[in-house]
Amino acid sequence: MAEPFRLQRVLRVREQLRKLRQHEAEELAARLAAARRAAARLAEEHERAGAAEAADAAAGRLTPESLRVARDYERALADAEAALLAEVSRLAVALERKRVELRRERQEEEKYVRLADAHCQRVLAEEAREAERVLDEIAIDRHRRGRKERSDARHS
Fold it and tell me: Is the pTM of this model over 0.90?
C-alpha cells in the first residue's frame, strides 16, 4: 500500500519549499518590524531635535552656526527617515509577495497530500477487490472439490 516513490519525493520537496518560504516570510517580517522601529526612532529624534531648537530659540541661545548645524542635522535625519520609509515600503511589498508564494506553496502541498490520500484509497480498494477475488476463487475451488468428492463417492 506504499505511495509511489515519486509522490513521496514530491511531497517532501513541497514541504521543504513551504518551510523555506515560511522562513523567508518570517525573516522579512522581522526585518520589516526592525525597519519600522528604526523609522519611528528617527521620527522621535527629529521631533526631539525640533523641540530642542525651539527651546534654544526661546531661551535666546540660537546662533547662526547652531542654526546651520541644526538644519544640517534635520536634513540628515529627514534623509535617513526617507530612506528607512522607502525600505519599509519595499519590505512590506516583498513580505506580501512572499506570503502569496507561501499560500501557493501550501495549496500545492495540500494538492499533493490529497493525491496521496486518493492513491491510498485506490490501493486499499484494489487490495479489497483482490482479497474478495481470492476468497471467491477459494470458495469456487472448495465447491468444485466438494462436488467432485460427492461425485466420486457416488461412483465408488
Answer: no
